């Protein structure tokens, strides 16, 4: 469950352009190992990675024990 996931503000207004990022939500609820899967360019990638690294989640659980989970999300420019 997402606790804090503010959208990154992308600079480049290119129609149908997007940045896709994969990451791990750790047992501490923080994002670990964010990885750009689909790039819009170095500047936009950095903005997205900076935003995603600050996201916070309630960790997934297995039998009541916190566990890591994988996430993936795409951002479009405006």
Could you give a short description of this structure?
This protein is an alpha+beta fold. It contains 1 helix and 7 strands; from the N terminus they run E-E-E-H-E-E-E-E.
Q: What structural category characterises the helix and strand content?
A: alpha+beta
Provide the low-confidence segments as ranges. Answer: none
Helix content: 10-25%
What is the count of distinct domains? 1
Number of helices: 1
Question: Strand order within the widest sheet?
Answer: 3-2-7
CATH architecture: 2-Layer Sandwich
The name of the CATH superfamily reads TonB
Our Rg estimate from Cα atoms comes to: 13 Å
In N-to-C order, the SSE pattern is: EEEHEEEE
**N- and C-termini, Cα separation:** 26 Å
Look at the structure and give the mean pLDDT: 85
> Which CATH class?
Alpha Beta
What best-fitting shape do the alpha-carbon axes yield? elongated
CATH topology: TolA/TonB C-terminal domain
Q: What is the number of E strands?
A: 7
Strand content: 35-45%
Largest sheet: 3 strands, antiparallel
Structure description:
There is one protein chain. The protein is α+β, with helices and mostly antiparallel strands and 78 residues long. The protein has a single domain (18-76), classed as TonB (TolA/TonB C-terminal domain), CATH 3.30.2420.10. The chain has 1 helix and 7 strands. The protein has one helix at 42-53, and strands spanning 2-4, 18-25, 31-38, 56-57, 60-62, 65-67, 69-76. A hairpin with a 2-residue loop joins β5 and β6 (65-67). The mean pLDDT is 85.
Give the key terms.
two-stranded antiparallel ribbon; 3-stranded antiparallel beta sheet; 15% helix; elongated; single chain; alpha+beta; TolA/TonB C-terminal domain; 78 residues; 45% strand
């Amino acid at each position: 469950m997402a606790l804090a996931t503010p959208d990154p503000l992308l600079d480049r207004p290119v129609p149908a352009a997007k940045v896709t990022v994969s990451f791990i939500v750790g047992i501490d609820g923080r994002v670990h190992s964010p990885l750009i899967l689909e790039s819009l360019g170095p500047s936009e990638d950095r903005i997205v990675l900076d935003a995603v690294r600050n996201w916070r989640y309630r960790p997934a659980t297995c039998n009541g024990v916190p566990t890591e989970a994988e996430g993936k999300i795409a951002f479009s420019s405006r």
